[in-house]
């Protein structure tokens, strides 16, 4: 019989993949994920801005602060790998209307 949840007696790694699509405006600020555990989490975040030319750019927010220089213009995508993640969010900037933004991230941690 399988022993679910106790495959080894040492610390084990977990990889979670999450994606979502949101609509942003120039003044949007959306927190997408928050770490509610005591685990130290690292991961890779990808932002794909599917907005039309002239629509808002998407900025990345990590741990409640903007990531310096991480701005994704309409029609572009960008990724970044960071450690000690506590929250992930998106902020809209630089354009009228609405942009459709896909946010994908892979979270890695031990328990």
Tally of domains: 1
Low-pLDDT stretches are 1-8
Proportion of strand residues? over 45%
The major β-sheet equals: 4 strands, antiparallel
* Helix/strand class: mainly beta
Taking the alpha carbons of the first and last residues, their distance comes to 24 Å
**Which CATH top level class fits?**
Mainly Beta
Please work out how many helical segments DSSP would assign: 0
What is the number of beta strands?
Answer: 8
Helix content: under 10%
Mean pLDDT: 89
CATH architecture: Sandwich
The value of Rg in angstroms is: 16 Å
Pfam families: Enas
Protein name: Endospore appendages core domain-containing protein
Comma- or semicolon-separated keywords:
single chain, 111 residues, mainly beta, Jelly Rolls, four-stranded antiparallel beta sheet, 8 strands, 0% helix, disordered N terminus
Secondary-structure blueprint of this entry?
Blueprint (H helix, E strand, L loop, with lengths): L12 E12 L4 E6 L7 E8 L7 E6 L2 E8 L4 E6 L4 E7 L5 E12 L1
Antiparallel strand pairs: 1-8, 2-7, 3-6, 3-8, 4-5, 4-7
Please describe what this structure looks like.
- The structure is a single chain.
- This protein has one domain (26-110): Jelly Rolls, CATH 2.60.120.
- It has strands spanning 13-24, 29-34, 42-49, 57-62, 65-72, 77-82, 87-93, 99-110.
- It has a 4-stranded antiparallel β-sheet, with no helix packed on it.
- The chain is an all-beta fold and 111 residues long.
- A hairpin with a 2-residue loop joins strand 4 (57-62) and strand 5 (65-72).
- The model is unreliable at 1-8 (pLDDT under 50).
- It comes from Priestia iocasae.
- This is Endospore appendages core domain-containing protein.
């Amino acid at each position: 019989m399988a022993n679910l949840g106790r495959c080894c007696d040492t610390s084990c790694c977990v990889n979670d993949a999450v994606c979502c699509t949101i609509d942003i405006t120039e003044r949007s600020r959306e927190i997408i994920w928050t770490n509610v555990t005591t685990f130290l989490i690292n991961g890779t975040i990808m932002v794909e801005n599917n907005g039309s030319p002239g629509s808002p750019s998407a900025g990345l927010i990590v741990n409640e602060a903007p990531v310096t220089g991480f701005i994704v213009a309409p029609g572009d995508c960008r990724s970044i790998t960071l450690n000690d993640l506590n929250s992930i969010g998106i902020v809209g900037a630089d354009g009228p209307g609405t942009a459709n933004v896909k946010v994908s991230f892979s979270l890695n941690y031990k328990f």
